[in-house]
Here is the input.
Amino acid sequence: MRVDSSFENRRGVILAIILGVALLFVIRLAVLQLFSDEYDQYADSNARLKVTITPERGVLYDRNGKVMAYNSAYYDVMVTIREMKNFDTITFCRCLDITPDYFVKRMKDIRNRKLNPGYSTYTPQVFMTQLTMQQSGPLQESLYRLPGCSIRERSLRSYSRPVAAHALGYVGEVDKKDIERDNYYVAGDMSGRSGVEKMYERQLRGQKGVHYFLRDVHGRVKGSYENGILDQEAIPGKDLTLSLDLDLQEYAEKLMANKRGAIVAIEPSTGEILAYVSSPTYDPALLVGNASSSNYATLQRSEDKVFLNRPIQSFYPPGSTFKPLQGLILLQEQIVTPQTSVGCSQGYVFGSQKMGCHSHPSPLSLVPAISTSCNAWFASGYRSMIDAKKYKTPANALDVWNSHAYSFGYGHKLGVDIAFEASGSLPTTAYYNKVYGKGSWKGATIISNSIGQGEILATPMQIANLCATIANRGWYRIPHLVKGIEGDEIDTAFTNIHYTTVGAEHFPCIVEGMHGAVTNPIGTSKGVAIPGIEVCGKTGTAQNSHGDDHSIFMCFAPMDEPRIAMVVFIENGGFGATWAVPMASLILEKYLKGFIDPSRHPIEERLENANLMQ
Here is the structure.
């Protein structure tokens, strides 16, 4: 009998397929049994409960060792569904100050596996989080009446005083992007969201630990797994010593109450920030605990923009505080000498226009020009530089001018250790070519730059850094908030010296002019004078098209061995001498002497009670 060859072929193909599939199963089984621990891990996961231990966050101290931010115990309310027999719902709700309707809704959410993938009736589930001792106390006293209810302790931030919110920053729950960027985090973890807490998150957060527990088929914990041989203890985060002086910070914030603006005080020799005020501010404790989300939303809706970090995020025309830098550039470029004399008839006339100036002796040289803040002197010098033939074109002259200003920290981010710093801006040739046309502008066209107006914008931090640079006679270290890290060194970016493009020989007359502004009877900064301390200062009044002008004052002291350089910037404060000067004077005295002379208490009261936000 003849067999159909096509049938034989089909049978061969089928047998080959069956043998191939069987071989694949055999190989896979061999791999799983001999080479893979996948099923071992799966079996272990059923019998072993892994509990991650979150480390204590590093403590924040001020420069004198005073605690600023530390850790306190908060409590999560846990419920184990299977054990909640004869549960006293009324007592539970009363202890937590919640309604029965909220209880029902929350229990429904806990049982929803889409919202709570780790749900099990045998294991504790989170009902409420981040309760204070006061909030959880009534419940802890009633636990004997609430089977299946337990309390889990956690650690959250506390603050010794309600100050420095913008410098310290806050700690909040991580989001999806955080988890994707860093596998350290899982849902529910906390991390720094702003300020020092954000910038030094890796040092502050520490290293997580892990404990393993044995559990039965129902998921109930029966004890330690293999006597804890696999457990790893958490490593606490590193403590940070900040450069802030807590007492000075508190005092500066007190003076700035009910005012919009910023205060930045720097130790010139180190770049360490002594005081960092953004006003209006808020109590950092508001962003801790189970009310933090609602508090955050309320603060965010505020018309006062309390989350705006004004020292590094707001930028304004620096006004006359820019004149010392203008003088330095003109000296370096040999456009003027300290003896260059300029006449001022209450302003500077160019063409059919006039830049106004207040009354003072005329003509005058550089030192008295700084002391009296003469607009004409600096306008004349700036125009002479931009139109000087040695640069061939105004564009080239502006580029040179720009590079000098840039070396002092203007027009770019300084690199401070605070998140979300803005760069401010300097005018560029490209900008003016676009606005006026290439070759169609000159010194008179952009004369407003000469007195810190026009297209110059600076943050209060940049102005404070300029003051520190002048105090150092030509160099600065990047301003920073962290002075020391437990068991580690701070970034060398904050210890390296940055030299400006202006020679040290040009600074003495600028310092003399700023000293004269304080000591000269007609000086613009005489209100900052402190008996026994040589103070150098420069006022500024930045024009504001939306309301009253901004009041600015920068200063440093003592003159020859400076310990503090600072800027006080008060939005809509009018003339610099009205509010910023006396405020700076009090802060200088507080830091350098440790107290305020009783004769000056009326000035304190005037500033503390002033409300410039109405």
